[in-house]
Each structure stands twice: as structure tokens, then as C-alpha cells.
């Protein structure tokens, strides 16, 4: 019975990822696509957590951390790129 | 006892999944980058926090372990998701993404003018009405 409910949660999260993928493909501006990618990464993190519960293992919890960090760094770098035109500038000592 | 708490964890995971689905719905339906980033940032972070807390409670009760990595992931998502949304919104404004035509207030423009800079021209022109 718990397996059924966790599978339902996994399916709902997959639907959420599909919705974000729609915005990722259609999105009129680049910022839309960045926001959609960020949300896809965060939903992926939730999917892995549900998958951990479904398989009854704690071996996948490192992946949650790694995906969280990669999503944040990716969003930061892409936002900086579209704001300033470059990621690392000369004389950038802040 | 363990079964009840297990069910609580599963209900938390389901609630988080529903929150994530609502945030994806907002990401599809809202008219503007700035409004969409509300859906993408707040409710998605809330849903993920629900799911991660559910997983944490589940492993705490079923396996008897306090999983530090899950706690760390909860704190990390809670800290970074608003920061990423804020950076993305500011980058959108600076690169001249248009405001929705129903927007009534633009505080960042005043701040930019006080600093002597001007907002990008294309932000000020309202977006054409959406096709149905």
C-alpha cells in the first residue's frame, strides 16, 4: 500500500517536470528558461527523495545534495551571464 | 507506532508532490517572468521541503538513522532557492524582459533612477496581450 502512494507521488512529480519542460521549450525569454531549469532541478531532487523511500535505501541521498548544489550554481551562472554578458570578468574582485 | 509515523511521512511526500505540481501549473499559466518566478521559487521550494522532511522522518522511524545528508539538503534548498529566484528576476529586469501589462508597481526602476542609471527601454513598454 505504501508503494502505491509513493508511486502516485512520483507520478505527480513527473507531471510537474513535464510542465516545467513545456516552459523550458516555449518560454519567450531566456529568464523563463532559466527559471524552468531551476524548477526542473528542484523537482528532480524531490523525485530522488521519493525514490529513496520507494527503494528503502539511503544510498541515494548524496545525489540529492549534489543535484541541489549543481542546480544552484547553474542558475547563478546563467543569470549572471544574461545580466552582464560574461560570467567571469577582468578586474572582478568582488 | 512505526507504521503511523511511516504513513505520516508518506502523506508528507504526497503533499510535497502536489505542491510541486501546483508550482508547475503556475509556471505554465502565469503571464510574466516576474510572476512566474514566484511560482517557480516559493511553492516548488515548499514542496521539496515537504518531500525531504517526509524522507527524513521515514528513515528516522523505519531505519532508526538520523540522516545528516537529508538535513543538509533541507537547509541548502531552503537557503538557495530564494537566492536563485532573486538573481534570476534581477537578471531578467536588467536584460530588458517586459513587464506584464497589468503590472501596477515597479520599485526597481526608482532605485535605478536614484543611482543615475536607467531601466532598459523595453521593460517599460507593456507586453502585447496574449493569444488565447
What attributes characterize this protein structure?
heterodimer, A: 94 residues, mainly alpha, flat, B: 132 residues, 5 helices
Describe this structure in words.
The complex is a heterodimer of chains A (94) and B (132). Chain A has one domain. Chain A starts with a helix and ends in a 10-residue tail after the last helix. Chain A is 80% helix and 0% strand. Chain A is flat, with a radius of gyration of 17 Å. With 94 residues, chain A is an all-alpha fold. The mean pLDDT of chain A is 89. Chain B has one domain (2-124). Chain B has helices at 2-29, 33-62, 68-94, 107-114, 121-124. Chain B is mostly helical. At the A-B interface, α1, α2 and α3 of A face α1, α2 and α3 of B. Chain B: It is found in: Membrane. Chain B: Its main location: membrane. Chain B: This is Na+/H+ antiporter subunit G.
Summarize the structure.
The complex is a heterodimer of chains A (94) and B (132). Chain A is mostly helical and 94 residues long.
Radius of gyration of chain A: 17 Å
> What's the order of the H and E elements of chain B?
HHHHH
Structural class of chain A: mainly alpha
User: Which of globular, elongated, flat, extended, rod-shaped describes the shape of chain B?
Assistant: elongated
The helix count of chain B comes to 5
The percent range for strand residues of chain A is under 5%
% residues in beta strands of chain B: under 5%
Distance between the termini of chain A: 54 Å
Largest sheet of chain B: none
What value does the average pLDDT of chain B take? Answer: 86
Q: Helix proportion of residues of chain B, in percent?
A: over 70%
Helix content percent band of chain A: over 70%
Number of strands of chain B: 0
Q: How confident overall, as mean pLDDT of chain A?
A: 89
